[in-house]
Design a protein that fits this description.
By secondary structure, the protein is of the alpha/beta class. The chain has 4 domains: about 5-130, Methylthiotransferase, N-terminal domain (Rossmann fold); about 130-260, Transcription Regulator spoIIAA; about 260-380, Transcription Regulator spoIIAA (2-Layer Sandwich); about 385-435, Nucleic acid-binding proteins (OB fold (Dihydrolipoamide Acetyltransferase, E2P)), CATH 2.40.50.140. It contains 13 helices and 19 strands. Helix 8 (about 215-225) runs parallel beside helix 9, helix 9 (about 245-255) runs parallel beside helix 11 and helix 12 (about 315-325) runs parallel beside helix 13 (about 355-380). The radius of gyration is 22 Å and the shape is globular. The chain starts with a strand and ends with a strand. Bound molecules: 5'-deoxyadenosine (5AD) and iron/sulfur cluster.
């Protein structure tokens, strides 16, 4: 019986969302139940992200706001996890006397012990990276979730060291999970009624490449597709340089593989890509996009773009816009470059003014809004298979995701939840589609 309350705030990527779910599941064994109210909670945890600038300051500010709940001698545990915790470590405990725990990105398995200690008043920081041999410790199972679509971590960390990116320093070097463990977990999920798995990692398409005995990511997808009960497979996130022909072929050979791919280009300019250390150029990126479109004509792309990278000229930026025109992303996550500690790009002069960066971001977002609108409108009248996951936006509606990853709301009752429904699209909104059941 739960008798303590846990409040978590999650920032950043899917990896963190997934870790937060793991934390809830692990601490349930200690009698903690999740709550939305920090004021009445027994423990507050901030699961932080440091991929873009200002992350540390943001965490300090948020903690300063949250600590008011601890006043008046109240026994409340305050913890910081995720990438800022990994980056700052002990320093956080030193700076913030009211902070109890700092838990790094590789140390979740220690959390129950740390929380027990904190309940007795101990303060502790754990930020040691785990090596490949102990990798099972990195992925404690998530229990007690009853959703139809679930994340399955296949790898974590990154060995690419793109010049702007802090991930290798805060998530550690690439570690692939054992395929036998992944397959066991997916089979278990299928037995529990899960219909869709989303394979998760910072760079899933380099899965297994460093261990000869493990399958490639494409082979892993084939093995997962063979599991009865799992009807749809997605993955995120991919590095274009590791997008092999074998993996591209999966979009044709594996009908269960979703027709959406997140393929971050970061820039459309060869010069900028080179300075970013991405390991591919514009042509090779577009070549892969072209192959994917040829094999799966209805495929949908999303991506990430950084604007204002050091030395980005007007001409470089025009190249990015023209890459967007060629790919036509349905959605794009665009960011203004910010220097991150320890990265190579932090040594380059951050030479563009805020005004120039903002103007470029505005133009890029304007173009993206047009693409999103145009692509979404082409869906009107088409029929999509929707995995119905819950109640819809309005009463009498249900909601789920189509194969291309878009949210579709349509009229129907809750008995549809858990099944795939064929739905005709009647209206397109910026972030979702409206349909009618067939
Ligand atoms: N500045 C701006 N954006 C960044 N990203 C990663 N590092 C930086 C940085 N230093 C973006 C990239 C990445 C996404 C998760 O965040 O586009 O794909
Ligand atoms: Fe942010 Fe990267 Fe950490 Fe995810 S892995 S939380 S994106 S810094």
């Amino acid at each position: 019986m739960a008798h303590k309350l846990l409040y978590i705030e999650t920032f950043g990527c899917q990896m963190n969302v997934n870790d937060s779910e793991r934390i809830v599941s692990m601490l349930a064994d200690l009698g903690y139940a999740a709550t939305d109210d920090p004021a009445t909670s027994d423990m507050i945890l901030l699961n932080t992200c440091s991929v873009r600038g200002g992350a540390e300051e943001k965490v300090y500010r948020r903690l300063a706001n949250l600590r008011i709940y601890k006043r008046g001698g109240k026994k409340q545990i305050i913890a910081v996890g995720g990438c800022v915790a990994q980056q700052e470590g002990e320093e956080l405990l030193r700076k913030l006397p009211y902070l109890d725990l700092v838990i790094g990105t590789h140390n979740l398995h220690l959390l129950p012990n740390m929380v027990r200690g904190a309940e007795r008043g101990e303060r502790r920081s754990e930020t040691t990276f785990i090596d490949n041999e102990q990798r099972a410790d990195l992925f404690p199972a998530i229990k007690g979730e009853s959703r139809l679509s679930r994340f399955v971590t296949v790898m974590q960390g990154c060995d690419n060291f793109c010049s702007y990116c802090i991930v290798p320093y805060v998530r550690g070097r690439e570690i692939s999970r054992r395929s036998t463990d992944i397959l066991t977990e997916v089979r278990q999920l299928a037995d529990e009624g899960v219909r869709e798995v989303i394979l998760l990692g910072q760079n899933v398409n380099s899965y297994g490449l460093k261990t000869a005995s493990e399958p490639t990511f494409a082979e892993l997808i084939h093995q997962i597709a063979a599991i009865d009960g799992i009807d749809r497979i997605r993955f995120t996130t991919s590095h274009p340089k590791d997008m092999s022909d074998e993996l591209i072929a999966c979009f044709c050979d594996v009908p269960k593989l979703s027709g959406h791919i997140h393929l971050p280009a970061q820039s459309g300019s060869d010069d900028v890509l080179k300075r970013m250390g991405r390991g591919y150029g514009r042509e090779s990126y577009l070549d892969k996009v072209g192959k994917l479109k040829a094999l799966r004509p209805d495929i949908v792309f999303t991506g990430d773009i950084i604007v204002g990278f050091p030395g980005e000229t007007d001409a470089d930026f025009e190249q990015t816009l023209s890459l967007m025109e060629e790919v036509r992303y349905i959605d794009l996550f665009s960011f203004i470059y910010s220097p991150r500690p320890r990265t190579r790009a932090a040594e380059l002069a951050d030479d563009l003014s805020r005004t120039v960066k903002m103007a470029r971001l505005d133009r890029l977002m304007e173009l993206q809004r047009r693409h999103t609108r145009e692509i979404s409108h082409t869906y009107i009248g088409s029929v999509m298979s929707v995995l119905v996951e819950g109640e819809g936006k309005l009463p009498g509606q249900v909601s789920g995701k189509a194969d291309i990853g878009r949210t579709v709301n349509f009229s129907g009752d809750s008995s549809l939840i858990g099944s795939f429904a064929d739905v005709r699209i009647v209206k397109a909104y910026p972030n979702s589609l409206l349909g009618e059941p067939l």
